[in-house]
Predict the structure.
Amino acid sequence: MKFGSICALALAPVLALAVPGVANAAVFLDFDGSDGVFGNDDVTADTFSDEFIFDTGLSVGLLSATISSIASSNPSSNIDFTSVTLNGVEFDIAQVGRIEFRTIEDLFIPGGLQTLIVSGTSGGTGSYSGTLAFSANAVPEPAAWGLMIFGFGAIGGSLRFNRRRQRKANVKVSYG
């Protein structure tokens, strides 16, 4: 009896993970490390909040993004963004109404996972999409730093050596 109970308890979490959950195939993010697109082409809920997580790798850099939604003459296709944030930083509002447009430009982001959250209201058949553009900052490798420091030292040493040589050349000796 005890063995069967222990086995059932051990298998319960595994079986819970095997049960398929509800998937939302309409939310998409395609990011290749330098640019990408994201969106939701099937916003049916009155209020929604979509979270996108993407990885910039180890690179730090600047990220710019836009998001837009254009409603047709049918009010059910209208989307109003209540909040669009990237790592907690709010997008700038460029236009609201039937055409919604927001941007964020040159946001410094650390390397690794980034979180984009889009929240808003929908008439029931809305959609939105956006673009991401990432440029990594060039950070010198440690060997490049070492070579640069050695170069500065060599320049300083040569300037000092030239000054000493000049002082010795300017010494006047008189016998009188």
Observations:
- Confidence is low (pLDDT under 50) at residues 3-25.
- Helices lie at 2-18, 142-169.
